[in-house]
Amino acid sequence: MQSRTPASRAAGGRPRSAAADAAILAATREALVELGWSKLTLGDVATRAGVAKTTLYRRWAGKNELVVDAVAELFDELRLPDRGSLAADIEGVVLQFAAILARPEAKSGLMAVIAEATRDDALRERIRTSIVDRQKRLVVEGRARAQTRGELPTELDPATGTATVDLIFDVVVGTVVHRTLVSAEPADEAWAQAFTALLLHGLRGSAP
Amino acid sequence: MQSRTPASRAAGGRPRSAAADAAILAATREALVELGWSKLTLGDVATRAGVAKTTLYRRWAGKNELVVDAVAELFDELRLPDRGSLAADIEGVVLQFAAILARPEAKSGLMAVIAEATRDDALRERIRTSIVDRQKRLVVEGRARAQTRGELPTELDPATGTATVDLIFDVVVGTVVHRTLVSAEPADEAWAQAFTALLLHGLRGSAP
Amino acid sequence: MQSRTPASRAAGGRPRSAAADAAILAATREALVELGWSKLTLGDVATRAGVAKTTLYRRWAGKNELVVDAVAELFDELRLPDRGSLAADIEGVVLQFAAILARPEAKSGLMAVIAEATRDDALRERIRTSIVDRQKRLVVEGRARAQTRGELPTELDPATGTATVDLIFDVVVGTVVHRTLVSAEPADEAWAQAFTALLLHGLRGSAP
Amino acid sequence: MQSRTPASRAAGGRPRSAAADAAILAATREALVELGWSKLTLGDVATRAGVAKTTLYRRWAGKNELVVDAVAELFDELRLPDRGSLAADIEGVVLQFAAILARPEAKSGLMAVIAEATRDDALRERIRTSIVDRQKRLVVEGRARAQTRGELPTELDPATGTATVDLIFDVVVGTVVHRTLVSAEPADEAWAQAFTALLLHGLRGSAP
DNA sequence: GCTTAACCGAGACGGTACGTCCCGTCTTGTT
DNA sequence: AACAAGACGGGACGTACCGTCTCGGTTAAGC
């Protein structure tokens, strides 16, 4: 998750301050809230964190990398709730996701790094590793639980399975993001219900 | 679409060059392709357009507004093809849309201005007016055509109708954008078919 | 005194507004008082004069030429007073000259155009014609009156005469300017008396 | 002479480059020779000095302050020659001073900053400190030497003494400047002799 | 408990782009 | 033909950050 080489602690010398990392990431989120991506400066983050600019550059390559790390942590709090039915479970995750996206430190930073990633493969890979793939667990988990409950047929073909996971992920994440950030309409419970209904009927009908 | 007041030709003075507008927007797209959003500078755009920086600032408030206008034009070429069935029509639009998003001048700029819009209401409104609402016509048209064909029930409640249009729009646009820009996987014909199938079953199943 | 060609009124067409000239020069002096040379802009002068920028440029080549003309008029009010003795006459002129130099429209502009003239022969010539030579009359007049009174010997050699006029002029003008603008001390009556005494003794002693 | 506080090396951080100062002042004089005051730009000076524009602005508040410092150094080479008599000594200094004023880097800049100083008290003070007062030593020295030689009476009243020093200084500097820059006539040996004669007779005659 | 190498803060450095101001010129339509 | 209005290409301004580079001064591991 960090850009520093993990095995760089070979030789002696003063070790890096662990507190600095946390302070910097927290300062980054704070600055994202107050200033937004475009007006956030690394000098300002360093000052907020009570750290020299050099310390910051020693650990991250630039603004993009720093913000990816700062934002990634936000999504780790997503949980797949057990509400008894697939529909209710999906609804729960959708609402949680929408709630995170409503926070300014998330929306300010997330779209910006995605934009930057359109021209920077390393950054896109970092985003995928740090954020996207980490949350795909929710789709996999949800499907497994639904299969246990008998709500979905047991999948056999692993290729088709992967494709379906990816599709569902794109649909859910993409739709919620678009609703929240572009349409700028609230993703409230009523909307989550309508969306979930559409998604579930789609899944059941188009499967085989 | 421009920042100048359309009816501002009240008083005397040399009129603004119409050619400059086109040159600037074209230069902006060219620079987006070559440099991407973050390295695009207004000074460079002005030079490419053979125009003074002041001329550019006289017409647009900043980089965001300029890029919104430059990108908006790209989506005007979207057409609802008549392929005989709703499924095929949707597939066609999805592929067209994905093709535009695959062009660097679109993806470089679009996500960046959306990111900026999270902190700038005027910009979000401009995006909605210039880009989003303009393309909602496709959903409305498509539904009308499907109703004519008898593929979809005739909608009665206008409120529900609007909500459905918005939902479909969020699902289609959001999913394609996420697939293309975040997952960075090709939105090819096979994928478009799978996605369309999911969407249509969802629509039919969740309608009543 | 103007830069327009005097014989340019050959052909027909609308004649130039005479009022504009006066308005522009007055506006220039006003702007000199408020803003000083370096912050004075021709656009601002034009606005103050209620005139278009083009009108201004049609008549003067630039800021330097305009300010020379605007400032030159200030010195025309200098008079050689008849106070009964050469010493008193000189004192009177010195005090008048110091009073004009104390006015912001004079000091702001005069030194600036002199500075510019160090690299612009045409401008220096214009200054000499419009300002300097015009006021040498005072020295010539003063000497003639003193000779009539018998306070100075009748000069014979015209070359020496010219040289002396120039020297006196440099001494008087240079000293008053330096006292007023560089030393920034008041050129009051006491000082004028001391200076005049020095000058007169110098003249009487070094004459033959 | 610099704008930085001399005792500002209290805290840590990289110290300012001493070489940069010299390079900037030299580049300023070079640019004054080539371009003159009004066409001199700080960006160009920075480039010539091989220095970033920010480095320049970190040390000087603007063009005026920079040029004062650059020009001030030129006058430090003035020396009071010992030519055996007061008249010859004055002549020597006058000629040296005229020679410096004839150099384009001096005349281009000096009058311009004096012009600016008419509206800027801080700048005037800086000029007085950096240039004017520093050279008054010549008058004081010259008088002392003349008193030793018995060419001038020993002064008693210190107030009158100061006033006389100031008056002589204004006369000498003002006259030479006016001759050189406004009248634009050469201040050659013949002229210097005539002027010195006038000044000395004036001093001897008006003293008591 | 002494070395010693990497860390840290501070801040100056060369550089790039910003958005603004003014320049002097050039269209406009009007007088 | 001169005029008011104002857009135009151009150039410099002074500022803000960038990412790098010295500084002097900690600080902990390993001798």
Automatic annotation (TrEMBL), chains A, B, C, D:
Where do the coiled-coil regions begin and end? Answer: none
Q: Does the keyword DNA damage apply?
A: no
Q: What does the record give as the DNA-binding region?
A: 41-60
Ordered alphabetically, the record's keywords are:
DNA-binding, Transcription, Transcription regulation
Record-linked InterPro entries: Homeodomain-like_sf, HTH-type_TetR-like_transc_reg, HTH_TetR, Tet_transcr_reg_TetR-rel_C_sf, TetR_C
PROSITE patterns per the UniProt record, alphabetical: HTH_TETR_2 (PS50977)
Q: Which SUPFAM superfamilies match?
A: Homeodomain-like, Tetracyclin repressor-like, C-terminal domain
The protein here is known as TetR/AcrR family transcriptional regulator
HTH tetR-type domain location, by residue?
18-78
Source species: Streptomyces gottesmaniae
Q: Does the keyword NADP apply?
A: no
